[in-house]
Automatic annotation (TrEMBL):
Keywords: Glycosidase, Hydrolase. GO terms for cellular component: cytosol. GO terms for biological process: carbohydrate catabolic process. This is 6-phospho-beta-glucosidase. It comes from Enterococcus asini ATCC 700915.
Length: 476
């Protein structure tokens, strides 16, 4: 029968990639603001190059992004025109608590999001809100060392109490941390972590992860107490790993890679640290500092649903000659000779999407929510800002069909689907504007030039039709 009648079709953004207004409305500075575009971007997001403020040598795309801070009414109207049932967005922590450790929140920030949620409600759009999408106030990094400090659990708890109470009745669907497994791959972007020479990076990353997992459980507890209607999900950067060959060593390598990704979700969904992870930490000499009651909290407050991003599958091998790298959402992986790739080298694999959906559903047996999927491409607009993005339509049609097969043929329980970057925004990986995902073109380039004018691409009307037919009509 295809997708459920109340299937939540929509699109996704993140505050730091679209809002801008970094110094307006009482907002404080966050880690995601000070990540530049260019050669220093990766050293900064990986925590190896310390950058906690702006300098004159770099361009910082998040300062303005697409200025949704001043355009949100217009943008939500366009989402409504497409027929969105849901809009996934995130809250900028430093809008609500500019320093992060204040007792009282910033009313201007609270009001800003309340206005957005009410605008969504006006159009019948259900907000799906990520509490932390790579956001960490700079003050918390400077004073406490970000998530390496247990004190952040309390500050996050305070944030959750404030937003769950303030937005009760306006927001029902929540995600605690975006792509929580990114802490292992981009620790500064994922959790505000900076490293000094001589630091035990693995120890710091896993300790910070424990604090985030704890914070996630506490958020789930509070959400359910404040409003029993609340549904809380976790979120991982997903994509099944294939063995490069049927050589048993390659199969084992792919299993190990998958486990590294699922480790966090195992804790959030099942409520305990899996045996393989405990053994891995033991071998690496990682000793997690825990307080009494931590494990009980994790066990008692598991998530209601699992959400994830999917852009590509990945490949694992033990053959050093085959380690020709391909890119994909911060992760590098071995090239799959059977797949085509995007302009950024991300391998395109719709069947891998179905495989990933099945893997996650088989593993957890909880409802799933696809909260990111899309194609980053160079779009060339005509003089009216119109882009004939047939390549994007083709990518999305194939992925929606694969998702439909997972639901219809395989029986996966799926709540909804939000494409990534429903409006063009700043790329998290590269900081570029020219790597576009949206149904809506935004006139801005990598250097910050442009009018910020919004215009519909060809995919806008295509997605409108997909939503109107509940995924039945995928034709171009």
């Amino acid at each position: 029968m295809g997708f459920r009648k109340d299937f939540l079709w929509g699109g996704a953004t993140a505050a730091n990639q679209c809002e801008g207004g970094y110094n307006e409305g009482g907002r404080g500075l966050a880690n995601v603001d000070v990540v530049p575009i260019g050669k220093d971007r990766f050293p900064v997001i990986s925590g190896d190059m310390k950058m906690l403020d702006f300098d004159d040598q770099h361009f910082y795309p998040a300062k303005v992004a697409i200025d949704m801070y001043h355009h949100w009414k217009e943008d939500i109207a366009l989402f409504a025109e497409m027929g969105f049932k849901t809009y996934r967005m995130s809250i900028a922590w430093s809008r609500i608590f500019p320093m992060g450790d204040e007792k009282e929140p910033n009313e201007a920030g609270l009001q800003f999001y309340e206005d957005i949620f009410k605008e969504c409600q006006k159009y019948g759009i259900e907000p799906l809100v990520t509490i932390t999408h790579f956001d960490c106030p700079i003050h918390l990094i400077e004073k406490y060392g970000a998530w390496r400090s247990r004190e952040l659990v309390g500050f996050y708890e305070n944030l959750c109490k404030v937003i769950f109470n303030r937005y009760k009745g306006l927001v029902k669907y929540w995600l605690t941390f975006n792509e929580i497994n990114m802490i292992l791959h981009a620790p500064f972007m994922g959790a505000g972590l900076n490293f000094e020479p001589g630091d035990n990076k693995e120890q710091i990353k896993y300790q910070a992860a424990h604090h985030e997992l704890l914070a996630s459980a506490i958020a789930t507890k509070i959400a359910h107490e404040v409003d029993p209607e609340n549904k809380v999900g976790c979120m991982l950067a997903a994509g099944a790993y294939y063995p490069y060959s049927c050589k048993p060593e390659d199969v084992w390598a792919s299993r190990q890679e998958d486990r590294e990704n699922y480790f966090f979700i195992d804790v959030q969904s099942r409520g305990e640290y899996p045996a393989y992870a405990l053994k891995k930490m033991e071998r690496a000499g990682i000793q997690l500092e825990m307080a009494e009651g931590d494990l009980e909290l994790l066990k008692a407050h598991t998530v209601d649903f699992i959400s994830f991003s999917y852009y590509s599958s990945r490949v694992a091998t033990t053959d050093p000659k085959l380690l020709e790298q391909t890119q994909g959402n911060i992760f590098a992986s071995v090239k799959n000779p059977y797949l085509e790739a995007s302009e950024w080298g991300w391998q395109i694999d719709p069947l891998g999407f179905r495989i990933t959906l099945n893997d996650i559903y088989d593993r957890y047996q909880k409802p799933l929510f696809v909260v990111e999927n899309g194609l980053g491409a160079v779009d060339v607009p005509d003089e009216n800002g119109y882009v004939a993005d047939d390549y994007r339509i083709s990518y999305l049609a194939e992925h929606v069909q694969a998702m439909k097969d997972a639901v219809e043929i395989d029986g996966v329980d799926l709540l909804g689907y939000t494409t990534w970057g429903c409006i063009d925004l700043v790329s998290a990986g590269t900081g570029e504007m020219k790597k576009r995902y949206g149904f809506i073109y935004v006139d801005r380039d990598n250097e910050g030039n442009g009018t910020l004018k919004r215009s519909k691409k060809k995919s806008f009307d295509w997605y409108k039709k997909v939503i109107a037919t509940n995924g039945e009509d995928l034709s171009n």
